[in-house]
Design goal:
The structure is a single chain. The protein is α+β, with helices and mostly antiparallel strands. It has a single domain, classed as TolB, C-terminal domain (Neuraminidase, 6 Propeller), CATH 2.120.10. The protein is 15% helix and 27% strand. The strands form six sheets. Strands 14-15-17-18-19-24-23-22-21 form a nine-stranded antiparallel β-sheet, with no helix packed on it. A six-stranded mixed β-sheet has the order 9-8-13-12-11-10, with no helix packed on it. A five-stranded antiparallel β-sheet has the order 1-28-27-26-25. Strand 29 and strand 30 form a beta hairpin. The protein starts with a helix and ends in an 8-residue tail after the last strand. The structure holds MU-OXO-diiron and calcium ion (3 copies). The site of one calcium ion (CA) has 7 residues, from strand 21 and strand 25.
């Protein structure tokens, strides 16, 4: 370890760290000033401004890949939380050369994905003080530890390193405040909490709780699970809890699934017996031959009460088990709560859950277990523009003993197989599904699917080898005499659907892209839509994840925004660029829309990029080129303090 690096990392006083943060901001401004020249020249911009049909007037960020991040001129992008930053009051300072699981469990985890801003006090619209709830999806051992590569990490890692990884998974809740210097974490807050895959005890609720297929040697009750895995996106409930989605939980399990009682189930979920993680070498619970039921305890939606640091997270099995990307909640006109979730894998499905009971406003206790009763359905689309929601209910249709389902628990544990039997529509990797607070439509990010064949195309999936992805709108029917979000019947059996845009480069006919006709002239093209959110005017903010394809496309991942109604519909503009080899996650606005939080996930993730020689060291260039890149949450504000996008 270098002395200089060690001194900077472990002994820098708080004031110097603040200086370092400020200098990062200044450096950023300098880069922006340089970068601005590469965006539309002011004269050209002025010439087109009068004819721009978009309602989004911001000047676009440079649409090129750099080692650093870049934001629309006139905005600040401040790094708020980095991997290893203190969360618990007694967390040690980050030392990337001496990571321990004990320290990691008190520090901000790896690969931040979903971000939710929850105002303080609970139930308020406070936009300068609140809790940030952040998912930590997975780990990149080749970027966390010296001497490893992406290819050899699983076989070479030590138990101590594996335990750091397990501790770096999960979730963080941290109190944050906006002051004169921008947003800062509140050190020592009673709310600050790390939830990890290593030690946080979770309760299982709903029909699959206590089922034999959830029981293991360590948990004969089938109701008590240690931790949560691969928390990708999520959602916030109307009663102020957070839902986090367990996505690619299959990656962590070793052993041969074919030798187990759950062989078909494990195969359908992609448990292959050859894990890219080392964990099964050190912990029996990740070896399916020794614990064939352990994977059945993951792949659920987990509910956490961020306002109660003593609360036990609950896995809500009513919402089904698959590779949940997100869990977006909306209250239907009749008061029932609807949760949408995509299953992110090529040819998987979109799901909807509707609670049996109604939401009771201003009474969190009354809604505590609302998600334990209700109906899960899966989407079936036709080429005439109709979407039908097919209920996944034991005993109905093919979901009977004849097909191996003996209870609703079986239907939920084997959600994918149940949906197959109902004839659900295979999609091009459904990532985020989000409801528009203004027009009431539901937006589905279909990130890509390079395995769709020509004979598998339809109006919903019009491109074979869909490399760039697309965005689909679901249109719930409106209640009589009401339109927009208020009247949108998210509980209806039948919706209509439309395609908003086909991503890709509109100047390249081979891409088959489709946007607003002025996108090439006034906007910027995107690839691989992944997460999204809406501002208060109902405009769509899209974040992208091209993976290593960004090396080919030449465009960065980041944040794009577009109108979904009016003359600017589907005219996408580029707002924020991730640093190299990162994907963009977690867009979340404060209620006043003056701050947009985004999560830069896996900066520097590329086949030959390692801790020792990463493709970027963002965001810590001030650490003399010795530290690895650090996944970080960034707070974006306007320099004049105004509303973003106005
Ligand atoms: Fe974790 Fe589907 O992205
Ligand atoms: Ca995602
Ligand atoms: Ca979202
Ligand atoms: Ca993705």
């Amino acid at each position: 370890m270098s002395d200089t690096a060690e001194k900077i990392i472990t002994t820098t006083p708080l004031a110097d760290l603040i200086d370092a943060r400020l200098s990062r901001r200044s450096a950023l401004k300098g880069l922006l000033a340089a970068g601005a020249a590469t965006v539309a020249a002011p004269a050209a911009f002025a010439a087109t401004r009068n004819t721009d049909p978009s309602s989004l007037p911001f000047e676009q960020a440079p649409h090129n890949v750099e080692m650093f991040h870049q934001v629309s001129p006139g905005h600040r992008a401040d790094v708020l939380l980095r991997w290893g930053d203190k969360v618990a009051a007694d967390a040690p300072a980050f030392d990337p050369f001496n990571l321990t699981a004990e320290a990691q469990e008190k520090q901000f985890g790896y690969n931040n994905d979903f971000v939710a801003f929850l105002p303080l006090p609970r139930g308020s619209k406070n936009s300068t003080h609140g809790l940030l709830a952040v998912n930590h999806e997975y780990t990149n051992p080749e970027l966390m530890f010296t001497g490893l590569t992406a290819l050899n990490a699983a076989s070479r890692m030590t138990r101590e390193q594996a335990d750091v990884e397990i501790a770096a998974h999960g979730h963080t809740i941290i109190e944050i405040k906006k002051g004169a210097n921008g947003w800062e974490p509140v050190q020592g807050s009673k709310y600050n909490r790390r939830i990890s895959a290593r030690s946080t005890v979770m309760q299982v609720n709903g029909p699959a709780a206590g089922h034999d297929r959830l029981k293991t040697k360590a948990d004969p009750s089938g109701r008590r699970v240690i931790g949560t895995l691969n928390n990708c996106a999520g959602g916030v409930t109307p009663w102020g809890t957070v839902l986090i989605a367990e996505e690619n939980f299959n990656m962590y399990f070793g052993g041969d699934p074919a030798k187990t009682s759950e062989a078909a189930n494990h195969k359908r979920l992609g448990i292959k017996g050859k894990s890219r993680y080392s964990w099964s070498r050190f912990h029996e619970r990740f070896d399916v031959e020794k614990n064939p039921n352990e994977p059945n305890r993951f792949g659920w939606i987990v509910e956490i009460d961020p306002y109660d640091p003593q609360s036990t997270p609950i896995k809500r099995t009513t919402l089904g088990r698959f590779k949940h990307e997100a869990a977006t909640c909306v209250v239907a006109p009749d008061g029932r709560v609807v949760v949408y979730s995509g299953d992110d894998e090529a040819f998987e499905y979109i799901y909807r859950f509707v609670t049996a009971k109604k939401f009771v406003p201003n009474n969190p206790a009354a809604n505590r277990d609302l998600l334990d009763e209700g109906t899960l359905s899966v989407a079936k689309f036709d080429d005439k523009g109709t979407l039908r929601w097919l209920p996944l209910v034991f005993g109905q249709g093919p979901l009977t003993q004849a097909n191996g389902f003996h209870s609703q628990a079986d239907v939920l544990i084997d959600t994918r197989r149940a949906a197959d039997l109902l004839g659900a529509t295979p999609m091009d990797r459904p990532e985020d599904v989000e409801t528009n607070p203004v027009n009431g439509r539901v937006y589905v990010m279909l990130t890509n699917n390079n395995t769709r064949k020509a004979e598998q195309i339809s109006k919903l999936h019009p491109r074979a080898t869909n490399l760039y992805g697309h965005i689909v709108e679901l249109l719930p029917p409106a209640t009589e005499g009401s339109d927009g979000a208020r009247g949108a019947m998210h509980t209806a059996d039948e919706y209509r659907w439309e395609v908003l845009l086909l991503a890709g480069d509109p100047s390249n006919p081979e891409h088959g892209a489709k946007y607003h006709p002025d996108t090439q002239k006034l906007g910027n093209w995107l690839a691989a839509p992944d997460n999204c959110t809406f501002d208060n005017r109902g405009r769509l903010w899209i974040t992208t994840d091209q993976g290593s394809s960004q090396r080919k496309s030449g465009i960065p991942d980041g944040v794009y925004a577009c109108d979904v109604n009016g003359a600017g519909r589907a005219l996408t503009k580029f707002f924020y660029a991730c640093p190299k080899d990162a994907e963009m996650c977690g867009p979340a606005f404060t209620p006043d829309n003056k701050t947009l939080f985004v999560a830069v996930q896996h900066p520097g993730e590329y086949k030959d990029s390692t801790f020792d020689d990463p493709s970027t060291r963002w965001p810590d260039f001030n650490f003399k080129g010795k530290t690895p890149p650090r996944p970080s949450v960034v707070a974006i504000t306007r320099e004049d303090g105004g509303v973003i996008g106005n």
